[in-house]
Amino acid sequence: MSLASGPGPGWLLFSFGMVLVSGSKCPNNCQCQDQEVICTGIQLTEYPSDIPLNTRRLYLNDNKIRFLPAMNLGLLSDLVYLDCQKNRIQEVMDYTFVGVFRLIYLDLSFNNLTFISPYSFSMLSNLLQLNISNNPHLLSLNKYTFANTSSLRYLDLRNTGLQTLDEAAFQNLITLQTLYLSGNPWKCNCFFLNFTIYLIVSHLNYPGEDLIACGDEDDHVFSAFSGCVFLKIISYTSFTNVLLKCPPLSPSGNILDRFLTKMPGFKGHWGRRNWVMTASKNVSSWLSKWVCL
């Protein structure tokens, strides 16, 4: 499946012509000056009307807005900065930002997000900074969510309900520099392994790494569950004491093979009970242990 197979934005573009917006006024109780509209903390319950069409910076933060209308927002073709933090937005639907393709900053933090459509950000190829932190009911992200945000440099996913992430969601983020992940209830199982490997090889900056931990208490301790293998990844820079519970396998098992393949410079050997992997100095100071119970 690709983004091209998803529903197109054509119906939205057609609908724009049906919307009557004067674009020459300033919304009630807002401040408008020099292509900047500030509607901060004025108890808005819906997206304001009469936003000037030449607006470049729009502040809707600290209100009670529940929904961002694509048709109205899409008329702001010059918009580069949109702050919607601290509202009550629950969903971001397909092509919500279809008309604001120049957007470089988007803040949706501190909302009530439960769902972000795979095509929500599909038109934001110029986006540099995206903040969706502090949405505790956001439990998952589709692997296509960031497919077209190839310019993204800063992504904040702190304090959500995310338990796991698919590494495929990040494969097009070739310019990503900073990724915030702390404060999430990560499910440190084998499905999470590929994303963990991605973090190792990508050399991203992810501040607050000492606060990144598994969300399930059972993931922090060695269980006596018979026949299981545990992978403990230890790093001096990130993901300290992350514990991955994996199916029974040997040093030639599929998961270990994939791990070694994706980690050039790593060498492994059997200890008395452990499969110990160490990295060459030019890769990273990582130590990984396969602990067989």
From TrEMBL:
UniProt keyword list: Cell membrane, Disulfide bond, Ion channel, Ion transport, Leucine-rich repeat, Membrane, Repeat, Signal, Transmembrane, Transmembrane helix, Transport
Signal peptide: 1-23
Biological process terms in GO annotation: potassium ion transmembrane transport
Gene3D superfamilies reported in the protein's UniProt record: Ribonuclease Inhibitor
Membrane topology: Single-pass membrane protein
Transmembrane recorded as keyword: yes
Gene Ontology CC: plasma membrane
Compartment annotation: Cell membrane
InterPro entries: KCNMA1_auxiliary, Leu-rich_rpt, Leu-rich_rpt_typical-subtyp, LRR_dom_sf, LRRNT
Domain LRRNT stretches: 25-57
Pfam family, one: LRR_8
PANTHER family reported in the protein's UniProt record: GH08155P, LEUCINE-RICH REPEAT-CONTAINING PROTEIN 52
Protein's name according to its UniProt entry: LRRNT domain-containing protein
Lineage of source species: Eukaryota, Metazoa, Chordata, Craniata, Vertebrata
